[in-house]
Amino acid sequence: MHTTLIEDPLTEDPLTENDLTTTRAPFIEAAKGRGDMFIRQPHELYSDRNHEAWRQLYQRMLPKWEKYANHKFLEGIESLAINPDRVPKLEDVNQFLAPLTGFVAKAVAGYIPAYLFFDSLRRREFPTTITIRDLDHLDYLPEPDIFHDISGHVPMHTDPAFADALVRIGGVAHAVARQFAGRADSEEALRELTGTLRALSRFFWFTVEFGLMRHGDGVRVYGSGLLSSHGEIQHAVEAAKVQRQPFQLEWVINQSFEIDSYQPLLFVVDSFDHLFEEAGRLEKWALEGKLGNVAAGEPVVDADDLRSFVDGVTA
Questions:
Q1: pTM for the whole thing?
Q2: pLDDT score at 183
Q3: Which residues are CB-contacts of 306 (< 8 A; sequence separation ≥ 6)?
Q4: Up-side HSE of residue 291: CA atoms within 13 Å toward CB?
Q5: Domain total for the chain?
């Protein structure tokens, strides 16, 4: 079989096109060039280095999960029968996942517009990155990778209560899109939509990505950003300087967050039923116009994300 060699811009070592390393995967660049968002997972393209990166990531996270992760996450890892030694096939993951909650992992080429992402959740489809971080930079993650998505997010999708909460968050986005459909010509509407999307993103960040849940006298982790971080999962639970506040919606939607350092402030829910209820309150506030004037700061809402909501559904 003919193999094309490609210069790696980071290391100057030649890569073959049989490689799915984050930011350096020819298959992904070709898909992006065609404008493809949802793609197949070409499992045959994972290199030995890709599989070794997965093995090392999984091996070093396992004791952290056992000590700090929510017990539903641990049950999810077991239910999915994830191979700790090789990058999993999404079709194998879905074979175990779909019968439990109806969710499936769906391969994407990278970033997809915000409305499309949230609406996928509403339809019980999780947009899943298929590249994996470089073996020599396991702690450096310039963007989500398959370890973050499959070992961080997907095990939580096996729990019906969490899955329902995730669907409800997607439903909030759908309601917002219907509310703002066709209103791109109004400067006031775009300003209000920007605030609403910032509030929705903060809700997702402080729950699905970096959420803590009460557990006995302490807390355990259910947020995927923590569950896929070897260093931050322990820091989030044990560091004295981290603020761990009871979840209050008015605080969450007005709280900026750190995107390139450990989180100094985290929010604690009582249960996944509690999370589901708060997502319902978020939707109610959105429909009442209470989210359009939240505090400035991260995240930045870009034009593509705004457009995705304006054009996402017809009123």
A1: 0.92
A2: 73
A3: 184, 190, 193, 194, 197
A4: 30
A5: 1
